[in-house]
Task: structure prediction
Amino acid sequence: MSPLSRPKQTCLPLRVFCLLLLIVLILLLLASGGLIIHQARQIVGQGSHSYGQYKAEEVFLERSKRAHDQVWQLIASRKAQSDPEAWDKSIRQLKSLAMENQKLAPHIEPLLESLAVLKPIRLTQADLIKKLSQENPQNRAALIQNYEELEQQAEEHLKPLSHHTDDLLFGPDETHELSEQIKANVITAQFLENCVLLCLFGTLIYLALCLALGLKHVIRPLEAIRRYVGHLGTGVQLPSMPQSRVKVIAEICETLENLGLYLGQATVRSEKIASERSQFKRMSLYDGLTGLYNRRAFDDMLEKLWQSSGQQATPLGVIMMDVDKFKVYNDSLGHQAGDTCLREVGKAIAKAVRGNDVAARYGGEEFVVILPNTDSTQAMAAAERIRQSVESVKLPHPGSPTGPYVTISLGVTSEMIEGSGKASDLVQHADDALYFSKENGRNRATLFDGSQKSEEH
Result:
């Protein structure tokens, strides 16, 4: 497929293409940044949830410590405590603590059971010591032994108490683990957000710099190259090429400048050659003195119009003209005056003929006009216009037999073209009529009718 037959494609301007590419990159960047920020927010949400658990565990830990202290305060004071109301008050406090926090209830219930066993032992022990001390102070050793046995029994009942009060302190490890998890999540989320923001701003700045540099060193040079290439070989002054720091584009610009210089020189040479060719063509077709067609151009055009008239069945006319007594004019006034006379006659003939007529210098002081699609009446009218146009110039002719000014004699013919004839026959017939005009007084036009044929003029 040749370049001329190739279908034209719709193309985007380079600026629009780069802008669309930049928009796509920014959208992709924002989408990826939004995704990472969403993940960071999820991490922050998980951290907040963990922080809520941490606060709940912290409250639970505080309450557990308080319950632990209350229980062991009871245990530490059991030896000195013998008031049932004090025992009941401590038990109520533990029950209230269990009701406030359901997580503490499983640990406080065994404590309450142990205290319920410990209470009667402690009260019985106190009553026994009191009674024995009153009855028999000397039985102190037996009293102490009995007390130790009761103390041992009480310790047996307090074993579950120690186990459950220690369990109340399970919260610190879990609370510490949650705290560390919160810190890790928050640090990770902040790090991700900072990285995303840094990447976003860095990428935007980078894209802006790339756009600015690309606009200066890529887009503008490429557009200048397009304009430069469009003006190559047109003869119009070429635009200046911008500077680019991109090596390939700079080399292209330099190459195009060299090409533009070469094409400029080639254009000048081509215009000179075309001018010379036009001049040579004009010299080959036109008469250098009068500006009318020369004999060679006349013969070519006569042959073409002869064939065209024969195909279209239209008449073709020819007028032959001769300046009257031109030799006398030339001899009396000189050759330069003769050349001036021929130039003025040629101008008068060109002024009188129609636009589609062909006026030519046949040779010497002879002129000829071809009249396409012209009958004899129209041909005679054209000949009369030409004769009057030449006479109206009023070039002085001291040796003219027809008057004081330069005149011409004309021979006219107009014929329908037949297949057996030749184009030169028309010229011969017009020349015969011209001879008749010159023999019969000059400064006149004669239409060929067949009777003016002669062997010699």
